[in-house]
Write a structure and sequence with these properties.
Elements: H1 3-15, E1 19-23, E2 29-32, H2 34-40, H3 44-47, H4 64-73, E3 86-89, E4 95-106, E5 111-119, H5 121-142, E6 147-151, E7 157-160, H6 162-167, H7 181-190, H8 201-213, E8 219-222, E9 228-235, E10 241-247, H9 249-299, H10 307-337, E11 346-348, H11 350-368, E12 371-374, E13 384-386, H12 388-404, E14 411-418, E15 422-429, H13 462-472, E16 476-482, E17 486-494, H14 515-518, E18 523-528, H15 532-543, E19 548-553, H16 556-566, E20 570-573, H17 582-591, E21 600-604, H18 609-618, E22 622-625, H19 630-641
Bound molecules: adenosine-5'-diphosphate.
């Protein structure tokens, strides 16, 4: 070869990107290029003449000369990437993955082999990383508990997990990847995997395909084994679809159990309510007789009691009233806790409620020698959203405590303040206060904060009820107190933002003059009542009023006849009667023209909120509960007969 041409070949070989090594038939290196020098870390001079095994890891040495010999014997071109995992060995002993292509070179006198060698370390690393990422992805998809399937833009299955294979894959019979969505649907219907109920396979197929095309929400199916599957499809960015099939059976079972548990609880709660209501009735009826007759004895004008007897009867009344309050409060609290108290909120004018509460508290305050006052109200008081009766009950509790836990000459003041959203009513007293260690549990039922052994009667339930009632009205309660200085209990309720603030106006005074004693014309009063001792009590009570003629009826049926024939000025009606109830009787009376204007006053031991609500519907003139409070009954008679 001419000098010049050989130089050019040399340059060409050196510029090749792969290492090039030429060996002779005995495996001796006779030519290397620059890339091969760099790859193996040997200078060319060291390589020329050495055996090719120098560049091969020792573990391959034994068989290598034989490979070379057989190649020389039967030479053929072998391209790179023919699948063999080959390795090279650098001068420093380190190994690296290589790909080699071999070509025979036939010269005149001998056979040579040219090896083009490529270092594939980088490619192998990238391939290994890609394999790892792929394995991660597959194991992630496989660890999804729900069935997972990915479709490509032609709606062919690209990827599924084993849950999918278990659930639906078998229907496809054969490989799953590459099959179409429509084929899957077809096979699943054919195999009757799902319980279609009344739906025809055609409709079901249309509905599923429709959902798959434009997925919105979820698509639910039932299997024949009673399981519920929720299919959720979503489009992917590559215009394919990813579909999850979630087994919802447990959720359905749990929801069902929950529903059943709730209805059992509701039934139990209703039973408890009924029990409480009848218990209330049973307890109140005998108390009615005790308190009623005690009051009659106390007021008896024909045979007035001696001072000693009056004192004793006072004890009876006191004890009875305490018992009544206890029954009422325990029942009220249990009803609240059983969720049986319904609060009906409405716009409420606070000053009106405060006046009412203060008026009701006045006699008690007078007896205790405590003054009760309403502090100057803000120029305009916002209307609040509350249950009027229940708000008054809370204020009554606070107010009566402020009087009870006070001393002769003490003061109780009702105050009103408000922020943007809530109005606060505070009852401030300068009474005995609450010791610090007792304060934490004050709103818990039956905690009397050290008063358990004291002379002041109480049940320890009033504050607990107040707190719960306030919460039912979206309100809160709280207090501050200093021993021997006094306490301030407050309740906050939401302000009605739609109502105009209210200006206070004076409450009309009731006339104190009795029309009953002086009444000339005789008023007929019909009393419908089955309990003989209650009838006897009413008779004795009415004897003091010559203006009244009392007619009694032991059943509602007889009562209604009596009322129709006598047209009394007023009817007093018990509710729980043998046969027709007082509710039904009052309803009948309101339907006849000759009786519809006769006021009917309910007098009953049925004192639950439910009973009251019912009474309101029926349209009683007033709903009085037993035991009879003589003053209250008199006031109603007074009011009605004066008309
Ligand atoms: P009761 O008054 O029937 O005992 P409450 O639930 O109304 O029950 O009150 C619980 C306790 O809180 C009372 O026993 C009393 O010790 C204390 N308490 C409540 N209000 C006041 C007050 N204004 N001043 C002092 N102590 C009070």
């Amino acid at each position: 070869m001419p000098e010049n041409l050989e130089g050019q070949y040399r340059l060409l070989i050196d510029a090749a990107p792969d290492g090039i090594i030429v060996v002779d038939g005995s495996g001796k290196i006779i030519l290397v290029n620059g890339q091969a020098e760099r790859m193996f870390g040997y200078p060319r001079a060291e390589l020329i003449g050495s055996a090719i095994e120098a560049l091969i890891p020792a573990r391959f040495h034994a068989n290598h000369p034989q490979h070379v010999a057989s190649y020389i014997h039967e030479p053929r071109t072998r391209p790179m990437g023919s699948g063999l995992e080959l390795a090279g060995r650098r001068k420093d002993g380190t190994e690296f993955p290589v790909e080699i292509s071999l070509s025979p070179i036939r010269t005149e006198e001998r056979m040579l082999v040219s090896a083009a060698i490529r270092d594939v370390s980088d490619r192998k690393r990238i391939e290994a990383e890609a394999r790892r990422a792929n394995a991660f992805l597959l194991s992630a998809v496989d660890s999804i508990q729900d069935a997972f399937v990915l479709y490509d833009e032609e709606d062919r299955i690209v990827l599924v997990n084993s849950t999918f294979r278990d659930m639906l894959g078998r229907s496809l019979r054969g490989p799953v990847v590459g099959r179409r969505f429509t084929e899957l649907v077809e096979r699943v219907i054919e195999d009757r995997l799902f319980d279609l109920g009344e739906e025809s396979p055609v409709d079901f197929r249309r509905r599923w395909a429709g959902y798959h095309r434009l997925p919105d929400g979820a698509f639910e199916v039932r299997t024949h084994t009673g399981r519920v599957l929720r299919i959720v499809d979503r489009p992917t960015a590559e215009h394919g679809t990813v579909s999850l099939m979630v087994d919802m059976t447990e959720d359905y079972v749990r929801a069902d159990e929950l529903r059943r548990a709730r209805s059992t609880a509701e039934a139990a709660s209703a039973a408890k309510s009924d029990f409480l209501s009848s218990m209330s009735h049973e307890l109140r009826t005998p108390l009615n007789a005790v308190l009623g007759f005690a009051q009659l004895l106390q007021r008896d004008r024909k045979e007035p009691l001696s001072a000693r007897q009056l004192e004793r009867i006072d004890h009876v009344l006191h004890g009875g009233e305490h018992l009544l309050k206890l029954i009422d409060e325990v029942l009220d609290l249990s009803r609240i806790e059983a969720g049986g108290v319904t609060i009906s909120t409405e716009p409420v004018t606070v000053p009106e409620v405060l006046h009412e509460v203060i008026t009701t508290l006045e006699p008690m305050a007078q007896r205790a020698g405590v003054s009760v006052a309403l502090a100057a109200l803000p120029s305009s008081t916002p209307v609040v959203i509350a249950d009027r009766t229940r708000l008054a009950q809370i204020l009554m509790n606070f107010g009566s405590n402020a009087i009870k836990y006070n001393k002769q000459g003490g003061h109780v003041r009702f105050e009103v303040t408000h922020a943007a959203d809530v109005l606060r009513m505070t009852v401030v007293d300068d009474g005995i206060g609450i010791p610090e260690r007792q304060r934490a549990k004050i709103f818990e039922p039956f905690h009397r904060a050290g008063q358990e052994t004291g002379p002041i009667q109480g049940t320890g339930i009033g504050l607990a009820i107040s707190k719960r009632l306030a919460a039912l009205m979206q309100g809160t309660v709280g207090f501050s107190s200093e021993t021997n200085q006094g306490s301030a209990f407050w309740v906050e309720v939401p302000i009605d933002k739609n109502a105009a603030p209210h200006l206070t106006h004076p409450i009309a005074e009731l006339s104190a003059e009795s029309t009953l004693v002086n009444a000339r014309p005789r008023h007929k009063v019909v009393y419908v009542e089955d309990n003989p001792s209650n009838i006897a009590f009413m008779r004795e009570l009415m004897e003091d009023f010559p203006g009244i003629e009392l007619l009694t009826a032991p059943t509602a049926e007889i009562g209604v006849d009596l009322i129709r024939s006598h047209r009394p000025a007023l009817v007093i009606m018990d509710i729980n009667l043998p046969g027709m109830s007082g509710f039904d009787a009052a309803k009948q009376l309101s339907e006849w023209s000759e009786t519809k204007d006769i006021p009917v006053v309910a007098l009953t031991a049925a004192a639950s909120a439910r009973d009251r609500a019912r009474a309101e519907d029926v349209g009683f003139y007033r709903y009085l509960t037993k035991p009879v409070k003589v003053d209250e009954l008199m006031a109603v008679l007074e009011e009605l007969l004066a008309r």
